[in-house]
């Protein structure tokens, strides 16, 4: 078994954030593939990858058996959120080629043992935390909806920067957007195909991912944007503006909480954010 | 008193504690975890050279507190917000009776708040009456998410809670500080919910509801309520230290809060001893919005607005006459002890 420093990633994902975590591998599984999968696991409240947030503490690979240890900004972080991340790690890593088993370990948490054992034994959240009132899916759905709404702010800003007006933005459907993955642009068709403009791709792509996850945008004909409650966006300037402001507030809340968690994480776990 | 560009700023620190987290006082492991978590908040947002060691942090004591607030921290008055946690700490963590020792020694400098928990029923009502009798409290600090036995917390808009709020109205306890935000065991979706403030604030228009930590991590939900209810306020503890190490985040947060909550409904608080006003007050006072931020939010963080947040808004809630206080502080015990009297003299007219 060899211990290696994490190599620079050849892929598009920036792995420098994971550099602080310890890695032990016998090369039976591609480490980069594991990291790419971990990057898909998000802190559900902060709507950011656990790799970016530097939660991953250690990765051990031994003849196909992979162990991932992670740590959160405080020992008091919501067990429900911790559970979602732990199951996310398990489910993402086990699909990597060559992986025969996945063990997840949550360290330094007041419910670390229950979560570690429960997730590795594939028990349900309700059976481990019998006093939890809400199902884990309901919590996840609510957080996803908040994240969707917050991401909408950047998406609409990008469209406005592309020169589009509220009455052009409000009626947009999924069919009107074409994401170009060979560049950083997206093409947006408005006014029944009479006009096509290009805008920044990432804010739209990130928004669409979350809009799909929440079920808001499933078909080509689905309207893209909605208010906090999921009601389609109105195009009159006043209500449009008030929903844009509300989405800005949702984003500020998530980013503000993210800043608190980053600072606590730095303080408690010795990581460093730029 | 703080001076900003030659102008006086009367500082009422709306959120201070005098706690005892010594090992002798801890009776449950939650007590140790609690103070460790507080310490993480301390180190996370305190400049390195200002950080305390853990022993000091466990119990800093009354003497250090008055120095940190009044001698070094520009604070003119402070509002004690108790945190009972009697399941974790033998004598309680930071109770009204503990705070009273200092508050009664310098009554002109402190506001002493009480607390209630509606799950205490008749006994709780008697406790509230006793606090009013003993200390003439004008406010309470509440922890709706506190677990007790099988209970996972309580709601401000419950029938039991309304009974206590009615009692507060009857006794003239007008300021209801609700701690929302980091909780003991946020297992449930609604552990951070601020929705219960809405109904309570509507039902008790004569009471003021101050949501501490501006509702983090539910600032958005809090803002929606505060924008509709004129008797809902935001306490800036936890948000304020952003001014020190994340100034643009602080500006953004203030932009949102000023837009939604308004300049008359925000209260500064250091959360002492989590953070100290000697670096926090200047950090907040020196915060500015860029031209772009002012345009985005349509608000100003002007010296006048800051003066409201730093003291005038709290003075309104607690019926404090700032000019009268300045006169009194030319020669009160604290000013004598720390030779602060001159700072309360009226500026001579040239």
TrEMBL record, chain A:
Name listed for the protein in its UniProt record: Iron-sulfur cluster assembly protein
Polar residues composition-biased segments: 10-24
Location of the MIP18 family-like domain: 32-104
Organism of provenance: Haloarcula rubra
Disordered as annotated region, ranges: 1-24
A Pfam family assignment: FeS_assembly_P
Recorded superkingdom: Archaea
UniProt cross-references to InterPro entries, sorted A to Z: FSCA_dom_sf, MIP18-like
From TrEMBL, chain B:
A Pfam entry, by short name: Amidohydro_2
Domain Amidohydrolase-related as annotated: residue spans: 12-319
A GO term, aspect molecular function: hydrolase activity
Database matches in Gene3D superfamilies: Metal-dependent hydrolases (3.20.20.140)
InterPro entries: Amidohydro-rel (IPR006680), Metal_Hydrolase (IPR032466)
Domain of life: Archaea
Protein name: Amidohydrolase
UniProt source species: Haloarcula rubra
């Amino acid at each position: 078994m060899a211990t290696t420093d994490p190599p620079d990633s050849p892929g598009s994902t920036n792995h420098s954030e994971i550099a602080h975590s310890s890695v032990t591998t016998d090369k039976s599984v591609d480490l980069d593939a594991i990291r790419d999968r971990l990057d898909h696991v998000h802190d559900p409240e902060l709507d950011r990858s656990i790799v970016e947030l530097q939660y991953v503490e250690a990765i051990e690979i031994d003849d196909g058996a992979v162990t991932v240890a992670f740590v959160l900004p405080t020992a008091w972080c919501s067990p429900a959120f911790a559970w979602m991340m732990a199951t996310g790690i398990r489910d993402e890593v086990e699909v990597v080629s060559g992986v025969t088993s996945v063990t997840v370990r949550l360290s330094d948490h007041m419910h670390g043992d229950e979560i570690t054992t429960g997730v590795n034994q594939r028990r349900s959240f309700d059976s481990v935390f019998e006093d939890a009132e809400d199902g884990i899916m309901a919590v996840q759905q609510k957080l996803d909806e908040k994240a969707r709404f917050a991401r909408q702010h950047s998406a609409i800003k990008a469209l406005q920067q592309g020169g589009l007006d509220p009455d052009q933005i409000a009626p947009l459907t999924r069919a009107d957007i074409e994401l170009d993955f060979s560049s950083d642009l997206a093409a947006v068709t408005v006014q029944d195909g009479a006009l096509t403009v290009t805008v920044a791709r990432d804010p739209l792509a990130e928004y669409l991912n979350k809009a799909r996850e929440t079920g808001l945008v499933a078909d080509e004909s689905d309207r893209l944007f909605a208010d906090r409650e999921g009601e389609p966006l109105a195009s009159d300037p006043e209500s449009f503006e008030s929903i844009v402001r509300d989405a800005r507030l949702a984003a500020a809340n998530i980013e503000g909480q993210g800043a608190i968690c980053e600072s606590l994480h730095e303080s408690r776990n010795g990581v460093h954010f730029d | 008193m703080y001076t900003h560009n030659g102008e006086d700023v009367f500082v009422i620190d709306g959120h201070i504690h005098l706690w005892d987290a010594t090992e002798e006082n801890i009776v449950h492991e939650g007590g140790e975890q609690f103070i460790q978590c507080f310490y993480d908040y301390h180190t996370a947002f305190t400049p390195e050279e200002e950080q305390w060691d853990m022993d000091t942090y466990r119990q800093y004591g009354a003497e250090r507190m008055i120095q940190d607030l009044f001698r070094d921290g520009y604070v003119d008055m402070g509002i004690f917000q108790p945190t009972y946690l009697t399941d974790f700490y033998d004598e309680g963590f930071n109770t009204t009776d503990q705070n009273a020792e200092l508050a009664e020694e310098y009554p002109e400098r402190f506001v002493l708040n009480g607390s209630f928990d509606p799950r205490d029923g008749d006994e709780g009502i008697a406790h509230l009456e006793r606090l009013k009798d003993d200390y003439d409290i004008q406010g309470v600090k509440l922890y709706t998410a506190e677990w007790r036995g099988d209970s996972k917390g309580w709601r401000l808009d419950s029938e039991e809670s309304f009974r206590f709020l009615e009692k507060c109205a009857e006794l003239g306890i007008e300021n209801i500080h609700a701690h929302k935000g980091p909780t003991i065991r946020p297992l449930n979706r609604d552990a951070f919910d601020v929705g219960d403030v809405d109904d309570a604030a509507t039902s008790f228009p004569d009471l003021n509801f101050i949501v501490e930590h501006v509702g983090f991590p539910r600032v958005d939900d809090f803002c929606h309520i505060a924008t509709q209810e004129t008797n809902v306020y935001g306490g800036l503890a936890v948000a304020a230290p952003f001014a020190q190490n994340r100034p643009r985040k602080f500006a953004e947060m203030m932009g949102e809060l000023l837009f939604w909550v308004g300049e008359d409904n925000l209260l500064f608080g250091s959360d002492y001893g989590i953070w100290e006003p000697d670096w926090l007050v200047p950090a907040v006072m020196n915060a500015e919005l860029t031209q772009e931020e002012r345009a985005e939010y349509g608000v100003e963080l002007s010296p006048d607005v800051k003066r409201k947040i730093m003291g005038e808004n709290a003075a309104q809630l607690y019926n404090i006459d700032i000019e009268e206080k300045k006169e009194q502080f030319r020669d009160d015990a604290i000013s004598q002890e720390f030779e602060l009297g001159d700072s309360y003299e009226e500026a001579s007219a040239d």
